[in-house]
Design goal:
Number of helices: 13
Order of helices and strands: HEHEHEHEHHEHEHHHEEEHHH
Distance between the termini: 17 Å
Strand order of the largest sheet: 6-5-4-3-2-1-7-8-9
Helix content: 40-55%
């Protein structure tokens, strides 16, 4: 089993770059390196979530194992200690995903994944733990099986997901790998959120992170009118959010800062509003799609493709700075519900010390 790279070097690197990002944003200078790195390793998925459009998208030619390893090597040599979140689609549709994580661990790169959990059995759970993965967020959208299964689109998923959670808890005991729930807040599950927090405590998980329902890809400002997952009773969801905030203050394992939970109230009331606060995605984020395209913001043109240019060269390119200036004056609908949320440095440090 690999030792997890929960290192002070990563924390220091994060501190330095976070400190430089505001200055870089204001003065259009490239001193800061990205601190939020996301690999979308596949668009393939084995379920059909109501709130997600990715499974409906045409599939693309994915980067190979060796191509992803080269990207990791390039990032590590450029940024130094960093953390990569692997997402999809369903990442475990790729049979090589634990090999990719294992390689990243050997390079001193921290890793985390988001998964629906339905493909994880005991043997795979052991491979995940042995790969050196830092954290795993498992999508759970209700305390009742019927709620989760309805939102996720296939009967019987809740039982499979909970079996995966138990397998990971068993395999990960003493390893240092963090295991948490990830829950999308919608009309259909809002009355089960508090119970999910208590379930996290009972199972001995490391936490739960809440994400507000939002458009996966759609830039239509009226997207929320087209789904029956949206809220028809703001009083009820605000009451639930107040309960979550109270639980957070009392020490519950909720990973969201209280300010973010409070901010969701305004978003649920006015989901059509554009973001008025400065968007830092052009300075903070580096995302790579399954077919190799490099982005800061997914709704802007790519900076290049890793098959032709390194992430560093793309990040420092004239095209990248042109896109950053466009982001400053962006009029693409990108609701605050997407929560490109920037924690304070103190909050980030405390979260790292607790969860890695």
């Amino acid at each position: 089993m690999h030792k997890r790279n929960k290192t002070l070097e990563w924390a220091f690197n994060q501190l330095v770059n976070r400190s430089l990002q505001g200055w870089s944003y204001r003065h259009d200078r490239g001193l800061a390196k990205p601190t939020r790195i996301i690999f979308c390793v596949t668009l393939r998925c084995n379920i059909k979530c109501q709130q997600c459009a990715i499974w409906r998208m045409p599939k693309k030619e994915e980067l190979t194992t060796e191509e992803w390893k080269k990207v990791i090597t390039d990032l590590s040599s450029w940024i130094g200690p960093c953390r990569i979140q692997l997402a999809g689609g369903e990442i475990f549709m790729r049979r090589d995903i634990t090999d990719i994580i294992d390689f990243a661990t050997q390079q001193g790169v921290l890793t985390g994944v988001v998964t629906n959990g339905t493909m994880i059995d005991r043997p795979l759970a052991r491979k995940i733990v042995n790969s050196g993965l830092g954290y795993i967020h498992i999508s759970v959208d209700g305390i009742r099986p019927e709620t989760h299964d309805e939102v996720r689109g296939i009967p019987g998923l809740y039982a499979r997901t909970m079996a995966a959670v138990d397998a990971l808890l068993e395999a990960g005991r003493g390893s240092g790998m963090s295991i948490s729930f990830a829950t999308v807040i919608s009309r259909k599950n809002m009355h089960e959120l508090v119970d999910l927090v208590h379930l996290v405590e009972r199972k001995g998980l490391d936490g739960i992170i809440f994400n507000p329902l939002g458009p996966t890809i759609d830039s239509d400002p009226e997207w929320y009118k087209k789904t029956d997952l949206w809220f028809d009773d703001l009083t009820s969801i605000n009451r639930v959010l107040d309960q979550l905030i109270e639980l957070k203050h009392s020490g519950a394992k909720i990973l969201n800062p209280p300010e973010q939970l409070e901010g969701m109230k305004k978003y649920f009331e006015q989901p059509y509003l554009l973001m008025h606060d400065r968007c830092m995605v052009g300075i903070t984020n580096l995302s790579i799609t399954c077919d190799g395209f490099i982005h800061t913001c997914f709704k802007m043109a790519p900076l290049g493709n890793v098959r032709e240019v390194t992430p560093r060269d793309a990040w420092d390119s004239a095209k990248a700075w042109e896109i950053r200036r466009m982001i400053k004056n962006c009029d693409i609908h990108c609701s605050p519900g997407n929560f490109v949320y920037r924690r304070s440095l103190i909050s980030e440090a405390l979260r790292f010390l607790r969860f890695g």
